[in-house]
Each structure stands twice: as structure tokens, then as C-alpha cells.
Amino acid sequence: MDKKNTECSQRIRREVNRYFQRMGKNNLFDISHDPNRFEAVICAYINSNNNIDYKPEFVHLCAPFIFTIHEEYDAFYCFESLMQTLDDFNRSNPVNSQVALFLSWFRSFLPDLYGDFQDEDINLSEFVSAWLKSLLASQLPLGSILQLWDVYLSTTSFLDFHPFVCLSILSFLKDSLEELEYSEIRAIIFRLPEIDIPRLTRLPTFNQKSNNIKSN
């Protein structure tokens, strides 16, 4: 794979190091070889798409493929396919519009938590945009992401389903979040705890909300 962009390679390496440090003792990656694989896959993707600039979330979006797929070229094609799917969806559904729609659902279905976030001056657009753009890969621990993406990648409409998962996570964490202040809320929403994804998506309240939204 072509890795001619030295500056980009260095940025990828730095983000991979931060990602590994964040996982700490729970890091299951091979720290000797996997940084090279992250670099190769992401650089190959950028070199194949000259109109795309590197973003730190690429590392997080690539991580499940690096972790689960042994062959580098297979990981690359899976990552490229995901990025193309995201790009196509975002062209038809601009991120700002996705955020606005999500916030209307958040306000409607979790009004108390929405009000608490406003009272604490949480930048709602910032965290919602991050959750939507990264498919929670930058926020959830790897174990939860593997569970979540196992569901997502077995369907053709996972990007339509994703906001409902985000709403369900907020509902699941509602009681604890309502007791917290600004800095504590931010610490949780940008670094979510391990979550039982299958249990989360089976919650009756979640299914009722998603069905109501889809019917509107």
C-alpha cells in the first residue's frame, strides 16, 4: 500500500498512540504491529481519495477492522466501504440537518435530560455531531463497538438506525447524567462506559421511540 504522505502518517501514529493510551490496560491491540496496520490502511484510503483530508476519527472508525481482520488489504476494503457509505449518506443528509433532527427527537423524548444539558451549558450540537459522525467509535469502548457494529454491518440501513441507538444510550444513562454537573457530563458523553448493546436495543422504551419516529 502507498504510504507516501509522511505528515499524514505521523498524525495517524500520534492518534493511534492516544487511542491506545486511552484504553490503558484494556488495550487488546498488538502495540508492535497494529500501529503500522492503522497507518497503512488509512494512508491507502487517503491516497486513493485525493479529495479527502485526514481526520482523527479515521483511527477510531478503522479500529474495529484492524482488530478483527488479519489481512491488511481486507481491513482496507472494509474500511473504504464504510467510509464510502458514510460519505454517500452525508451527501444526501448533511450533518447539520442530522444534528437538528436528532436534537428535536432528544427534546421530545427525553425533555428532562435535554433541559438538564441546557442548564449545564452542554454544547448539544458538538456532542451529537461527534456521536453521529463517528458511529460512536470515538466514544464507546472497543468491546461495545464490536457488538454494535456487528448489528450495524449486518443490515443495509444502519445509518438510519444509528440515531435511535444514540437516543437509547442517553435514555439508558439518563438517571446518572441528571445527577452530574458540566465537566462530569462531558467526561461521560465523550467517553462512554461499556454498554450491553444487545440489551440496550431491546429496551421497550427504545423500540417504542424508534417506531414512533419512523412513522412520522
Give an overview in words:
By secondary structure, this protein is mostly helical. The protein folds into 2 domains: 6-90; 93-215, Cyclin A, domain 1 (Orthogonal Bundle). Helices cover 72% and strands 0% of the residues. It has helices at residues 6-23, 34-48, 57-68, 72-92, 95-109, 111-119, 124-133, 142-152, 158-177, 182-189, 197-201, 204-215. α2 (34-48) packs across α4. It is globular. The model has no long low-confidence stretch (mean pLDDT 90).
Task: Give the helix tally.
Answer: 12
Helicity, in percent? Answer: over 70%
Spans where pLDDT lies below 50 across 5 or more residues: none
State the CATH topology of the largest domain.
Cyclin A, domain 1
H/E element order? HHHHHHHHHHHH
Major sheet = none
Integer count of domains: 2
What CATH first level of the largest domain would be assigned? Mainly Alpha
Write the layout of secondary structure elements.
Elements: H1 6-23, H2 34-48, H3 57-68, H4 72-92, H5 95-109, H6 111-119, H7 124-133, H8 142-152, H9 158-177, H10 182-189, H11 197-201, H12 204-215
Helix pairs in contact: 1-2, 2-3, 2-4, 3-4, 5-6, 5-7, 9-12
GO molecular function: GTPase activator activity
Protein name: Rab-GAP TBC domain-containing protein
Organism: Smittium megazygosporum
